[in-house]
Every structure is written in C-alpha cells, then in structure tokens.
Amino acid sequence: MKTKALLTAAAGAAVLATSLWSPEPAAAEGEQFVPGLQYRSGPYAPSGIPFANGFADYLTMLNARDGGINGVRIHYDECDTAYNNDRGVECYERLKDAGPSEPAAWNPLSTGITYALIERVAQDEAPLISMGYGRADASDGRVFPWVFTLPATYWAGADAIIQYIEEQEGTLEGKDIALVYHDSAYGREPIATLERLAEQEGYNLHTFAVAHPGLEQQATWRQIGRQLRPDWTVMWGWGVMNSTAIQTAASVGYPMDRFIGIWWSGSEPDVRPAGSDARGYKSLGFHAPGADFPAIQDIVTHVYDEGEGFGEREAIGEVLYNRGLMNAVFVSEAIRTAQARFGERPLTGEETRWGIENLHITDERWDELGLGGFAREIRITCEDHEGGGSAFVQQWDGESWEIVSDWIQPRNDELRPAYEASAAQYAEQNGIELRDCDAEE
Amino acid sequence: MNTRLIASWLIGAPAAVVGLGLVIQLAALADPSLYFAWGYYFEVFVGGLLQGVMYSLVALGFVLIFKASSTFNFAQGSMVLFAALTMVGFIEWGLHWTIAFALTMGVMVLLAMAIERVVLRPLVNQPHITLFMATIGIFYFLDGFGQTLWGSDVKSLDIGMPRTPVIVLENVFDGGIMINQFDLVAALVGGALVLGLAVFFQKTRIGRALRAVADDHQAALSVGIPLKTIWVVVWTVAGIVALVAGVMWGGKMGVQFTLALIALKALPVLILGGLTSIPGAIVGGLIIGAGEQVAEIFLGHFIGSAIQDWFAYVLAMLVLLVRPQGLFGEKIIERV
To answer: Which residues of B193-210 are buried (b: 16+ CB within 10 A; e: fewer)?
Structure first.
C-alpha cells in the first residue's frame, strides 16, 4: 500500500511538473511578443506542424543570430487550436495578455478562425495576417483596417489557376472545369470568382463539395473520372482531404497533370501518401520550395545545430515549412518597418499595424534577408492589404516540387472592384465607416 | 441464421438493387441533367460494396468487444491508428512488411494484456457505462501515445497491393465497369478475416469459451471459464482486426491521425447491423457502403453533394425505426 501511495504521489508530481513546464523562456521586459495560433494536434496536424515549425524556427533564428529585431528580442508563445474555431478563439483570449508586450500580429492559419477573430482584433486593436487564406474582401484596408491578406487571396488564386489553364488550352470556351472543395468557409471562398470567370470565359464549372475532413471521396471522383471527365479539375482542399483526393483521383485514372490545387493543396504531405501515383500533380505556390537559401541555412546553423529547432532537420525546406517561415518574415519585417518610425522597442498592436501597412519587401530586400528569389516583391498600403496576389504553378515530379510556370499576375483590375464591392456590403451590414486613407499619414 | 433468412436476402437484395436502379432511371427521365446508365449504376454500386467491406473491417472490432463484455469500445478507431503507425514505424526501421506485420501483432497482444491488467481488471463488476468511459480514456491515450512514439507526419504504407483500376464487363455495358484493384484485394482480405473469425469462434475451444462469456458472464465463470484470459483474447483479436483495417485504410490514404476517425464510419454500420452480430457488421457495411455511394451520386444531384456521411446515419436510423436491435442484433428484453 505504501508503495502504491508513493507511486501515486510520484505520478501526481510528474503530471504537475509537466503542466507547469514550458519550453518557452520566461518573458522579459523589453521583448516583443509574437503569439502563434498553431495546430500540432487534430486531423490537420500533419499540415499544421511544418508550418508552425517554420514560423517558430525563423523567429528563433533572429533571436540567436541577430539578438532579435534591432536588439529587441522576440518572445514567441503558441497555443494549439487543433484547427478548431472555438479553440482558436479560446487561444486568442488566452494569449492576448500573456506576453511581455502587446501581440505584434495574429496568424491563425485557418479561414474559420480568421472569420471568428475579425471583430475581436478590431476591438482589441491588434493586426491579423491571414496569409493566403481568410476573407478575400479583407484586402480592402478601408473596411478591414486590422486584417491583412498578403501576399494573395483565394480570389486571386482562382484567377491565377484559370489563367494558367487558359494558357495551356488556348481557349476556355466550352471546356469543363471541376472544382473539388472542402465544404467549409475556406473551400467555398473561390466559387463566386470561378462562376464569374465561367460566364466571362465560357467554360462550364462543376462543383463537388467534400465533407470534413475529406476521408471519403470515392463517389466524387467516380463522377469526375468516369462520368464528367472534365478537361481540368481544381482543388480547394486541406489536410487529409488533399492526399485522399490525389489517391482517389489516381484510382479512377484521372490524369494528374490536369489536376491543380490551390497553394494549400500543394505540399509534401499531400502527395507522398499517393507515392508514384501523385507524379504530375500541380498546385499554385507563392514562395519557393527548398532549403537552398542563406536565411534557411542560418536556421540550420543557429537553431538546429544548437539543438533549438522545433521540428525535424529533414523537414526544413518543405513547402509548408517555408510557408510558415514566410509568415514569420512578414511579421518580423513589419516590426522592423514600424520600429523605424516608432523606435527600437516593443511595439503596440496599432504601431505594428502601421508597420504592415507600410511594408515593402523589394527583390533587393528579399536578397538582404537571405531569401533572394524566395518570393515576389510585396507592397502593402492603407487601401491594399493584399499587396500583389501573384502566384506560380509547381508540379510534383515524384520526389520534389518543380516550378513549371512564370509568375501569374491576377487580373486585379477585375478583382479589386469585386473586393471593394464585397467589403462595402460588409461595411454596410456592420455599420463600419470607411477609412479615409488619404487623410492618414 | 436460418436457410429461409439467407434465401430471402439472396433474392431480396438483388431485387432491391435493380428496383432502386429503376427508380433512379425514372428520375433521370424526368430530369435529363441526371446522368444514368446501368453500367455506371452498377459500377457505383460495386464500388460502394467494396468500400463497405472496409467499413465492416472497422465495425468487426467493435462487435468482438461488445460481444464479450457488452462494452462499446470507443478506442477501436485509435487502435486502428496505433496499429498502422506501429507497423509503418517498423517498416521505417528497414524491416520487410511481413515481419513488421508480425511484430505489430505482437505489440497488439501486449497492448491487449496491458489494457486488461490496467483498465479492465480494476473495473470488473462495474456498470457498462464505466467501462465505456474507460475506453474513451484508452482512445485519447493511444491517440497521443502512438503519435508521440512515431510522429504526426503522414506516412505512406505500401505493401505492394495493386492500385491500378481494371475495367470489367466491357461487352455487357458501354464503357464497362471500373473496379479498383486495391479495393478488390482489401475486400478479399476482409472476407478472409471474417471467415477466419467464424472458424475461430465456432471451432476452437477458446472461441466457444468466448461465446459462453458473451452469453452470460456469471454462468461462464461458474463453469471455470477465466474471464481475464477471455478479455485478453478478445482485445487481442480486436487489435489484430484493427491492424488489418489499419493496413487497408492506411495503404489507401496514408497513415495519419485521421485514421482514428474512420471509427465514425463504422457507427452507422453497427447501428444497422446490430452491435452483437458479425454477419450484421458485414451486411451492415455492405448496405452502408453501397447506399452512401448511390446517395452521393444520384440523390446528391438533387440536394447537393457531400451528403454521404450523414446519409449513412439517416439510413441506419430508418432501420432503427423498424428494428431497434438492428438487422441482425439480439433482441434484448429486460424484465423490470
């Protein structure tokens, strides 16, 4: 009995110690807080983990190599949302006052959580970066002053995919294009744009919803592969839906080189389970894959060689790792931009927002960051919170992703009025007064 | 199952399939945008049946444990994931898949022994709901433990099963009927497993003891059948069924966290087939598999896509209205 009591006490002590232990260093005055709404658990963890690692590793590298940003160390702390909207909001509330300074920017990596936080960040005056996801109309900074969609929206992605298909086909008139989408706010986001372009370009759009999490798609692909046989199939998937779609498409003999996904449907975990069947599959991208960049090598040297890496060394340079890194670059460069104006100290949310709204990463700046050729020039303004929108097409060759197109610039002359019209509708419904960007500095 | 029942299924089921096809054909005549061809219809149906065998594989694990302990094993899905993760882990160590499979079977035996010793034995004579709650704990433990051991990455599991589709009956139907070889092999493996389980339960001494425990714990104990051993055996068999299901599902869509969620696909199968019947799990799986595929493609045309998940539950609930114990479940009458 005594032994049992001792064991119970030891187990209790171990649990208590585990719950109190945190991998993060204690917050210190003078540090800039960067919160992370990541997901390392749940059905979407295989996609969430590499992104979270890339994000955290880049910030860790800045601390290790440069002592932070202009001497201001970054305090990073993350909370696991499990890609669940409720938990996302809970994490936001838990983290917003948990750092040594106001949060620099929120990066929820979820369209659903982005929707859930839009009003909260406006109330708390904290910027939110929905990098390549979220509401496309939040690109209108006059209506959504706290939300940023850089470097591209889903509407821009849809436009880029259609441009690519048109380039391959010569004309879209009479062509059949299928859209397989995650049946969620995320998956439904491109439908309006694809429908508008269908009217404009003369192709027939066929939509197929896939229920969360996307494990079962046999019926969908039987219709696509055996009945409809569209000229092209576009996918708006995430997590297990992507790999299941690619494998099921292969099982009905659908040609992979006519199957193209959005940038969230184009990473290694999406194609590897299908093995050689995935060869030829395409997706959009807005940053380069691979680890052959000085900044990424700095992560290896300053973070992984010191045993401080968040993930596996082998995963460095994978698509989602690099995407997390790109998100961290946007946050750190916004802080740097804001510091140039407000001083080299921890910033408020409002000051960081100014930093994002004045963010301009030129090709030369990408070079200086050790990321030359990694991504395209980005310039954010008070009105334009997207800052470019261009993307390229990459193709899986069975081993790695190869970029197979030039940068595709979306037709912003058509997209911009659509953003503004949708944002104006949102503003009207929510009683929001449009910002006068000309009157602001 | 008596001969009359088997005969009624053998005649009734094909008649129902053809009848449903005729209804859809009529709907297609009324709405020309609905595509219908008999070859395509049968292809959808056969694809659904093969898919249904995969559901049955998962449902079998639930039935085995429910039969022996009247407990709904919430952890069956995580056992599928844990088994598949373990096997892939062994393969990643450089072992041949057959050796990895055998080693994983050993791990599942150890797991069954651990569950019996740590979870079940202290709960003997406790209400069924307590055991059920304990299986929820096992679910979360295995879920996290498996990923802690082997990581959360999506892993490929290739044991050399053919993946290319084949076209059959080309001279009967225009375009033939396409069948995925992987699904076909998986269905054959599932069938062999069911046959093996039937022999195990009917012909072996331990199988008979297990049936005795399932019928009446007290009576089984009074004639000297060791309940603890039986529980280990049942959880071992359920673990091996989980391993086979994990290999089939993992081979199909990669081994990852979401594998644990396929238990959700087994629930309507259990509702339909009954919690205590192995044939029920098989027939239930076939009906759910075929029903949801046909619904997704033909009914989905009218009410929108992505309906197959909830349609499976609706189908099962409709059966519950008529037969609360499921198609093959035991009618339990409790005196008060």
So the answer is: bbeebeeebeeeeebebb
**Torsional sign, CA A19, A23, A25, A27:** negative
pLDDT tens digits for range B124-180: 778 888 989 999 999 989 988 888 888 877 888 888 888 788 889 988 888 889 898
pLDDT mean over B185-193: 89
Residue A11: is it exposed, middle or buried by C-beta count within 10 angstroms (0-12/13-18/19+)?
exposed
CA distance A57 to A309: 6
Task: Work out the burial of residue B192: count CB atoms within 10 Å of its CB; fewer than 13 is exposed, 13-18 middle, 19 or more buried.
Answer: exposed
pTM of the predicted model over 0.90: no
Gap between the Cα atoms of B113 and B119, Å rounded: 10
User: Which chain B residue is nearest to residue A43, measuring alpha carbons?
Assistant: B258
Decide if A308 contacts A60 (C-beta within 8 A). Answer: yes
Q: How many CB atoms lie within 10 A of CB A426?
A: 17
Architecture of the A154-285+393-410 domain: 3-Layer(aba) Sandwich (3.40)
Query: Structural domain of residue B234, as residue ranges?
Result: 13-322
Angle at A311 between CA A310 and CA A316, to 5 degrees: 115
Cβ separation A43–B163 shorter than 8 A: no
- Report, as an integer, the average pLDDT of A228-250: 93
Work out the number of other CB atoms within 10 angstroms of the CB of residue B156: 17
**Distance from the B253 Cα atom to the nearest Cα atom in chain A, whole angstroms:** 5
**Cα-atom radius of gyration of chain B, to the nearest Å?**
21
Break chain A down into helix, strand, coil percent, rounded to 5.
Answer: 50, 15, 35
Task: Please tell me the predicted confidence (pLDDT) of residue A15.
Answer: 43
In Å, what is the CA distance from A353 to each residue of A56, A349, A381, B68? Answer: 21, 6, 11, 62
pLDDT digits (tens, 9 = 90+) for A368-416: 999 999 999 999 999 999 998 899 999 999 999 999 999 999 999 999 9
Query: Angle, to 10 degrees, between the axis of helix B263-273 and the axis of helix B278-294?
Result: 110
Residue at B82 is within a domain: yes
Whether residues B180 and A251 touch (CB distance < 8 A) is answered with: yes
Q: How many domains does chain B have?
A: 1
The CA distance from B12 to the nearest CA of chain A, in Å, is: 25
Q: What is the CATH number of domain A29-152+289-379+418-439?
A: 3.40.50.2300
Say yes or no: B43 contacts chain A, CB-CB below 8 A: yes
